[in-house]
C-alpha cells in the first residue's frame, strides 16, 4: 500500500528537480523513522553523498558547456565597434512623462559634452528620437536593435535618474 502511494508520487513528478526533492524527502523520512545506530548513520551519510552526486550529474555536468541562446547570429557580429558609447536609460525608472522628457533633454545635452571630452565620434542613445513614453517601440524590436548596438559599442553607460514611485 505504501509502495503504491510512493509510485504515484514519483509518477506525478515531471521535472528532475522535483524527483530529487522527492528522493531527498524519502531519505529524510527514512532517517526520522529509523533508530539511530552507527550503521544507520553511515548508510544515511553515504546515501546523501550519492544523492548529491546524482544531483551534480543531472544538473551541472550536462549543462556545463551549454550557452545562452544568441539573440543575433555570429555572422552578424562585428568586431569593429560601430559606436564608441552605448547610453542606456531604463524606461521603468520614469514615473511620469514630464520627468522622462526632462531627463531626455539632460541626456541629449550631455552627449555633445561626452563627445568633446572623451573624443567619441558615435554615441548610441535609443531615446534620442523618442519624445514621450507613448512613442517607445515594441519590446522585442527594441531589444533586437538595442542589443545589437550594445554589442557593437566600445563602452556602456547606464543612466538611472530616479527610482520609480508608482
Please outline the helices and strands.
Blueprint: H1 2-12, H2 16-33, H3 38-60, E1 83-88, H4 97-118, E2 123-125, H5 139-151, E3 153-158
Parallel strand pairs: 1-2, 1-3
Helix pairs in contact: 2-3
> What count of domains describes the coordinates?
2
> What profile does the largest beta sheet have?
3 strands, parallel
- The chain-level structural class is mainly alpha
Report the total helices. Answer: 5
How many E-type strands?
Answer: 3
Low-confidence parts, pLDDT < 50 over ≥5 residues?
none
Strand percent estimate: 5-15%
Dominant shape: elongated
Mean pLDDT over the residues: 72
Distance between the termini: 55 Å
Determine the fraction of residues in helical runs and give it as a percent range. Answer: 40-55%
Record the strand order, biggest sheet: 2-1-3
Rg, Cα atoms, Å: 28 Å
Element-by-element helix/strand order: HHHEHEHE
Describe it for me?
The protein is mostly helical and 166 residues long. The chain has 2 domains: 2-60, no CATH class; 74-158, no CATH class. The chain has helices at residues 2-12, 16-33, 38-60, 97-118, 139-151, and strands spanning 83-88, 123-125, 153-158. A 3-stranded parallel β-sheet has the order 2-1-3. Helix 2 (16-33) runs antiparallel to helix 3 (38-60). The radius of gyration is 28 Å and the shape is elongated.
